[in-house]
Amino acid sequence: MINRDTERGFTLVEMAAVLLIISVLLLLLVPSMTDGKSRADSVSCEGSVRIVESEINLYYAEHKTYPETLAVIKRGGATDPLTYSCQSTAYTYAPATGTLTKK
């Protein structure tokens, strides 16, 4: 005779419950991780734009005029020298004012 009280192990229902709990925790965790990545990308892009604006101001301090294109400070796009791209965001450069504006 087999005594069920002395057998060790997990039942199928217990294993299914554990897998269900792990699945729910993963469903809660994955969206927060992807949201954090997009926020980090936008913060990184904002930092890059500030650096380009600083380079524009340094050029102005040295030459007393804003650069005609971003290619002058080696930051212009290959196809459009008045556009600066960061991640998936594009910024337009206005040579008259020396400002970058988001498209």
Automatic annotation (TrEMBL):
The keyword tRNA processing does not apply. This is Prepilin-type N-terminal cleavage/methylation domain-containing protein. Gene3D superfamilies: Glycoprotein, Type 4 Pilin. Its main location: other. The chain crosses the membrane at residues 12-30. It comes from the Bacteria. It is found in: Cell surface. InterPro entries: Bac_GSPG_pilin (IPR000983), N_methyl_site (IPR012902), Pilin-like (IPR045584). SUPFAM superfamilies: Pili subunits (SSF54523). Pfam families: N_methyl. Keywords: Competence, Membrane, Methylation, Transmembrane, Transmembrane helix. NCBIfam families: IV_pilin_GFxxxE. It comes from Exiguobacterium alkaliphilum.
